[in-house]
Amino acid sequence: MSPESPETDTSPAADSPARKPAERPAGEPEPGASPAGEPEPHASPAGQPVEPPAAVPEPHGRPRLLRDASLSAVLAGFVAVVVSYSGTLVIVLAAASAGHLDPARTTSWVWAISLGSGLTCIGLSLRTRMPVITAWSTPGAALLVTSLGAYPYAEAVGAFLIAGAVITLIGLTGVFGWLMRQVPAAVVSAMLAGILFGFGTHVFTSLKTAPVIAGSVLLAYLLAKRLLPRYAVLVALAAGVAGSAATSRLHVRLHAIELARPVLTAPEFSLASLVGIAVPLIVATLASQNAPGMAVLSASGYRPGDRLLIGTTGVASTVLAPFGSHAVNLAAITAAICTGPEAHPDPRRRYVAGVSCGACYVLIGSFGSTLVAFFAGLPGELVAAVAGVALFGALAGGLAGAVKEEKDREAALITFLATASGVTLFGIGSAFWGLVLGVAAHLVLSGRRRGRTAGA
User: Fold this and answer.
1) pLDDT class for 56, splitting at 50, 70, 90?
2) Cα-based torsion angle of the residue sequence 350, 356, 357, 363 in order, rounded to the nearest 10 degrees
3) Coil, helix or strand for 329?
């Protein structure tokens, strides 16, 4: 149960067989229910039962997307893209440099991961009616910084292709989703809180290096949260840009704008690249990206269909691998920006943020590295502060879910601390280890309690 879903459901549909997850295949939508992943229509963002909206005739000639669109949701998608291109893309460019790729192949790599992320964002968000945010594998790119230069580029592309195919198979079979469903809700919420913890603290650490920028973002956010809560992030972003300009920290320059030209590379296969690139890339993408991505959606009250989501991103990775895409997967940090109430008070209308995010990915990716230079000119403190305030709601929800049940608090605490520590072991990030340690603690502690109960 997610921290935002009610503990009990007294609506007539609560006893319907179609609402029992155990009676349908994993990852498939409920018969007669809303599209896969859409939150329960009777559940509010705060987890309190509310009356479903009265049925009204749909206006002819106006698509549902336009009816559901809102400035706050569109902005949430844009902020997610700003965070992606201003932060994690640097790791991709570093990996390209380490692999001695020429500008054409580097641009093709940026184009491929942007296009894959954009199309999957748009398609999955429209299909499921939930804000599905995808991105390129950051831990995978970090892995390539140290390993890409040791193999011919064609063999690296072959490893990307194999990794995408294996992830697709794991997703479509439902194995990954089954494993995720065995994790207690408190541990999932604690992992989410641990992932976002650093972004929350960056708002305040940025006050030391850029007090005007970070201070204006925080103050504007608080004032707007009181007066214009739906547009608090927009106001904070505008204040941060103004503060950056006032302190001469805004160095945005656009040179000649050119469309990206994808470069097709015929894949080659070797045992060395399979072991050195494909296997660790599979593990890192599933454990450090897709697992937290599923957790973010679940913690926000959605019921993500793992087969559809993991399978689709795996297919996108496979198709785009010859153009340089190392992996497309579910996002976690940027997803939290789009799944909270800041995107829209109604969870059923937040999918617009996913569509907005995808459209921005496609637009920026179409121009390759040209527009990437635009985001590189934004001050790091501005990006950190805006991302931090945009994630306040998701962080608060994760913390609340982690401590909701007293019996799970110790396991949740271990998960939170391990995840927030940022430790990386064997090339796998802290989110995975927090999940593993939290589940282990839950099994030990729950087993101890059951033993005491049986012996009483």
Assistant:
1) very low
2) 170
3) strand
